[in-house]
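Hey,

Quick one before I head out. I ran the complex with magnesium ion overnight. Inputs first:
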Amino acid sequence: MSDLSADIDKVLISEKEIRRRVGELAAQVQSDFPGRDLVVVGLLTGTLMFLADLVRELDLPLRLDFIGVSSYGDGTESRELVFTKELKLDVAGRDVLLVDDILDTGKTLRAVINKLGEMNPRQVRSCVLLSKKARREYDIIADYVGFEIPNEFVVGYGLDYAEKYRNLPHIGVLKPELYS
Ligand code: IMP
Ligand code: MG
């Protein structure tokens, strides 16, 4: 067993399950934005794998951009939000698909949706790979949700703990003794 996967308590979502579900999400997006000039906005850095897999399933003339937002701190609790990269493309009058790795309290998605809204897009829809309903503090729902997961801290497939574990190919629950 490698050093990295030795830190994982259990695999919550396998590579195969991720691939199947991402295909389903892409099919939904594809039918909701037929032939549209879509701007897909990924949030750095956790959406890396998800975004790459999702857009390759979309046969649409889309453009890609990124917003950097960090919840400052390397723990498991989100704190003050800081924007670390601004959008480069003009989204005025465009359809925007905002992609994030996980919807937890809802603070990040709410802040980014509000920010995008000020740029006068035609519409903003949001897509998250994971959602932890039990943790929600802000009244926000995503239009596309890959998996509802229990209230456990997960890593892999882009998601990190203290910037590590993003390169695990599956989504796993981190051994609690590693962060408590
Ligand atoms: P929110 O603002 O509380 O909804 O938190 C969203 C952000 O917190 C996500 O974009 C992730 O970067 C991070 N996050 C929340 N839960 C987890 C988790 O279980 N593993 C890794 N990152 C998480
Ligand atoms: Mg993150």
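The beta strands are 8-13, 38-44, 63-70, 82-85, 95-103, 123-131, 144-148, 154-155, 171-174.

Talk tomorrow,
K.
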